Amino acid sequence: MKPAVSWRGAGEGFMSLEFKKLIVALFAVAFIAAVVIVGLIERDRARPEKASRAYADAATRACIDCHDQKHAAVVWNRQWEQSRHAEKGIGCMACHQAQEGDPDLWRHEGYLVATVPSPKDCQSCHEKEFNEFTASHHAKAAQFVGSLDNFLGEVVEGAQAANLGCKQCHGSVVKLDEKGLPLPGGWPNTGIGRVNPDGSLGTCTACHTRHDFSKAQAREPRTCGRCHMGPDHPQIEIYEESKHGIMFVAHRDEMRLDADEWIVGKTYTAAPTCATCHTAATTTQKSTHDVGARISWTLRPLFSKRLENWEVKREAMVKVCLECHGANWVTNYMQMFDDAVEHYNTKFAGPANDVMERLKAAGKVTPTPFDDAIEWTFYELWHHEGRRARHGASMMGPDYTQWHGFYEVAKHFYAKFLPEAEKLLPGVSEVALAHEGHQWKKGMSPEDLKRMIAFYEERYGQRVQ
Amino acid sequence: MAVAQPQLPAWVRFLRERVPVNIEVFEELSKEPIPHHMKSWWYCLGGTPMLLFAIQVVTGILLTFYYRPSPEEAHASVKMISEEVPFGWWIRSMHHWAANLMVVAVGLHMIRVFFTGAYRKPRELNWVVGVGLLFATLGFAFTGYALVYDQLSYWAATVGTNIAGQTPLVGAWMADLLRGGAEVNPTTLTRFFVFHVGAMPTLFAVLLGLHIFLLRIHGVMELDAPEEVQATPLTVEEDREGKRRFDPNRFFAFFPDHVTTELVVGLFLITVVTMLAVVFPAHLGPPANPEETPLHIKPEWYFFPLFRWLKLAPLWLGMAGTLVAGVVLVFWPFFEAAWRVRRPRSETALAVGGVSLALVLAMMIWEALS
Asked: Is A5 in Cβ contact with B260 (below 8 Å)?
């Protein structure tokens, strides 16, 4: 039987069965290739501790293998393998290579090993960071010989205390034995202003702990808190008390601390850390390793002073603030901060210093520091309590500004320091108390008394005597 | 005298005795006549959503091994799949990309069917089933996206269920059914999970089965054949054994010809999906935070036209318009048939389709650029 109608639709050609079989074969190969790529990626990911990303040159391989076998500081190996350095093939000798004649040259297993890598070693790749750091106050942290604090630590307390105390943060002077190995007293030490055998100052590992040299770690508030804590500079406690610190704890998952480019307002918005305000990049300025580049006051000494180029530094800090806050907010806050610092200077620091000068002039206090009881009172007044008040104000920690700060300053000024001074030299505080802030001591006015009584009656239903 | 049977292998005999079905029925089925126009790639689109659905079933089952549908654990489990589970990143990214491509594939298939008039009598019901499959695909995409439980997916679910809640009459009930409460809450994630991995796959499989069944009993419409050719019976001759044969001038066999075409398409798709997974692995944002609304909430791209339309129109008009468009889409073959009773050769459908498609695309692009 013949077909009723003969008609042919679309032609054969590219859609012939033979041709389609060829395409099937081609795509089968393509798919297998795609799966092989997937397999390669998976193999790369599955390697333990991302070690596959580490590129180790022959010397580095030798160091790692030997240290692994002898189980000698294997932690270094694992940390390095996870580091950015490992990814880039920056091996052990990139930092530990010593030259003949180097003071810290140690002949070790056939290698010339530098025992104390310093910022100079980092400089060969991180030039900008080295220059910024070297110019910073951090780099000079160990240059405090001759200061009151140095006398207190080295002499009054004793060198044994200073080695594991002051110097661990400020930095030691590293001395070496004849084999090139560092001596006790100066080592171990990761103080920020360490004086290295090669003459360079500081150590990058203070914030970027070896051997993973992590950026993320330096962005962690706790890293700064290792030294910026305690009675005389409790920055970490102030930060933790502040809204900034609270937000950080509440949102630390969103901080992206390990991001390559870490810009507030762009990479992350959850909270600022110490690094955000003092060193990290913002949308309007670059990052800096000069930790003081955005600090306009020094809040450390007896009298706070505005630093050199303070206007530029203040502007840099204001730019950071503006990433999250409005202009009015920032201006008002800065004004309150400046007012609080100046208030401390004029009401407490100035008068107390005046009293001490008069006592010295009258021979009631010897030139030797800390041998008179009032010197300890005076020292704590500005070095501990006065700093806490100012630091609290600078970083928005209300309790440190108030109860740990100005309250303690006032209490010890009026109830301890002045009585001690008056005992030594009656009438010595008369001039000091001329400041209008001290006029209240002459007694409250009848109106003020009435107002206070009315307040307590209304609020608590109590009568005040 | 018994006819000498060729000796079959033992395992074939074993099977034949235990599964006594007529093999010839399958042979017959595999020789489904396919019109010649189906040799053009453009007409292979119908098979693509099914292939992608198969990828989704397989990858979906694998993902379910590790996914934990609770607000506390969902994001962490997706993170674990992406970062720790061997090949987890690949499986998740395949699922992500196959889902996106499936929406594209369904859309293209529908466009092809619409503009070739393949939904017309007697195939109207299959169009209705097909639109059901489109809705099911979008439902899959919506619930699946929400399961990731990162910030964007959480807020997309919130906005999506709020929109559903605006439907006249049944809106409040629908939103309640989806969310299990007045707002997105811990129960919502469980519901979405059950919809996504249980209810919807079942519905989808049933609709897909019905879609293919209807397709097979009607046969594929002969697109290019002149009407007098289409009017002749499919069966044109019988062979010596009395089996039906199809006119080889008009048809080719489903197997092996069309199967090979589908194989090409299938291999192409799985390669593309794999490469997309490698080059653009599925993203995972920060975990959902009901306290913090992101600055820019956007649904996935396939909801852009609807999203833009709802932004443009007042709420009542937006919802009413969407409903009307949905009803017209579902029952389009009947509406058009009624129109063609009066104007038998009208091609108004092309104009309606063209304008609708242009509108949808324009609003999608507008939303994407805004």
From this structure: no
Residue B36 touches chain A, beta carbons under 8 Å = yes
A305 in helix, strand or coil?
strand
Contacts of A209 (CB under 8 A, 6+ apart): A190, A217
Question: Environment class of residue A119 by beta-carbon count within 10 Å: exposed (0-12), middle (13-18) or buried (19+)?
Answer: buried
| Measured CA distances, A8 to A262, A391, B37, B116 (Å) | 66, 91, 10, 19
How much of chain A exceeds pLDDT 70, in percent? Answer: 94
Cβ proximity of A281 and A263 under 8 Å: yes
Q: Who wins on pLDDT, B24 or A226?
A: A226
Residues of B whose CB is below 8 A from A28: 267
Q: Which of A1, A37, A42 sits opposite B237 (nearest CB)?
A: A1
**pLDDT tens digit string along A406-419?**
999 999 999 999 99
Q: What pLDDT score does B260 carry?
A: 85
Mean pLDDT, to the nearest integer, of A430-448?
A: 86
Collect all residues of chain A within an 8 Å Cβ-Cβ radius of residue B277: 38
Cis-peptide, bond into residue B6, ω within 30° of zero:
no
Give A286: exposed, middle or buried? Use CB within 10 Å, 0-12, 13-18, 19+: exposed
Question: CA of A104, closest CA in chain B: separation in Å?
Answer: 43
Nearest CB partner across the interface for A10, out of B40, B87, B260: B40
A8 in B contact zone (CB under 8 Å) = yes
SS3 content of chain B, % helix, strand, coil (to 5): 70, 5, 25
Torsion of CA B143, B147, B150, B153, to 10 degrees: 0
Buried b (16+ CB within 10 A) or exposed e, B65-88: eebebebeebbebbeebbeebebb
Which residue type does A266 have? K
Determine contact: A13 vs chain B, CB below 8 A. no
A253 chain-B contacts, CB cut-off 8 A: 286-287
Rg of chain B (C-alpha set): 24
